[in-house]
Amino acid sequence: MAIALRTWPRRLVARRWLFAFVPINAATAGFGVVLPLLILIPLHGSWGAVALAATVFNAAVIASSVLWGHLSDRYPLRRLFLVINFGGYAVLYLALAGVASLGELYVLYTVIGLIAPAGASASNLLILEKFSEAERPTAFASYQEMAMIGSLIGLGLGYFWTVDGDALTSLLVVLAALAAASAVAIWFGVTDPSRRATTAQVAGHAESLASRIRTSIGFRTPIPFFPYRPRIGRGAWGRLRRWARAELHHELPLVFLATFLFNLASNLYNISYTPYLYGAGLAASSIFLVNLSNNAAQTLLYPLSGGMSARFGPDRLVQRSSYLRALGYLATAGFTFLVFDPRGAFALNVLVFGVLGAAIAVYTTASSLILFRGLAGRDAGSLLGVNSALGGVAAVSGAALSGVLSTFGSYRLVFLVSAGALLVSLPLWSAASIAFLRRRHEREAPADGPAPVRAPDRE
Questions:
Q1: Environment class of 46 (CB within 10 Å of its CB; exposed 0-12, middle 13-18, buried 19+)
Q2: Domain residues of the chain, as ranges?
Q3: pLDDT 10s digits, 338-381
Q4: What is the pTM of this model?
Q5: Which end of the chain is more exposed for a tag (fewer CB within 10 A), N or C?
Q6: 16-230+247-441 topology per CATH
């Protein structure tokens, strides 16, 4: 089954109100770099403190994702939820600009995690409800373009703001203003749609799934997606075992496990990466440029990833991109064996992190298509809930593991473990591809067995 995923719109903006997502993405992209630097520089925190901040943030995101998904289905107030999300960021960024201790930062960052999923659900549902079926691929592509353009603006702004010094607290004020601008633009520029969609309907659109996977804030953490509230209580383990037995003939468990390893490796690597760059002697402005190389590579390659998936197949691309990221992690680990001056470390990390950005652009599209085809004709909402739960566990586990490994003081070990997790995922992707082909062959085979082969005509 060939599935197309449009990754470049016919026109840049499907509706003018989509421009409202540019400032908020600029704010969140800049904040993803500012936060660990705020811990490391003004607050004199450690790598372990950065990992702890990521742990509490990810835990808050997971817990609140279930609530916001339920509220989005119960109350179709897309504009209000987006304003709560964006306006909340503005207020909290301003509050973070005045923190005097790590304890205050942890509390505020936890609150950011609690409101982060509000916008993730509302934005996808807003597009589903505002655009017709034929317009949605272009709409989601435009939404992605606004996110990528915004991230480039935010990281570029962070570079110019800190090039003459580590003015992180004043930069937070600017990022708060950008978040507030998006909140105002949404409130006055968007009306709540007349038709109503539910979070479960997101599973019916490959573009929307890709959008959900790419939605992130701080440490590049995906926002979990729970169309249905997970039932956790008596009998939960038994239900999980019954589900696993029923799914043994399907490729989805393999896809889920491979995705879990990918997310675990990515969270472990990303959380430790900024402290590593700071420890290597890079200034805040240089760290912004390293991150800019990653986002620039994503922006350049993501529009091509849909065509690449159609031409080479998502199964091949997801393995190649995972392998490429593993090589990038190994290269970063290799840097720790050598002594560079800050300029040399900057140049090498710009190159490697840019390659990692290109790989994640291809991986996102390819993995979204593989997940989408596996959900066809199935209870997509529940299955996406399982996948999101595993993603949440990977996010928290990656952050916690980063904190544990920080006690050994070895960035090298972190990057090697990250690369190892990705390499272990490769045979899982291969097994998932084989399982899908076998299942498709069984589905397409005639019920009465194979048709007889006719002997060739004699001349």
A1: middle
A2: 16-230+247-441
A3: 877 888 899 999 999 999 999 998 998 888 888 888 877 666 66
A4: 0.86
A5: C
A6: Growth Hormone; Chain: A; (1.20.1250)
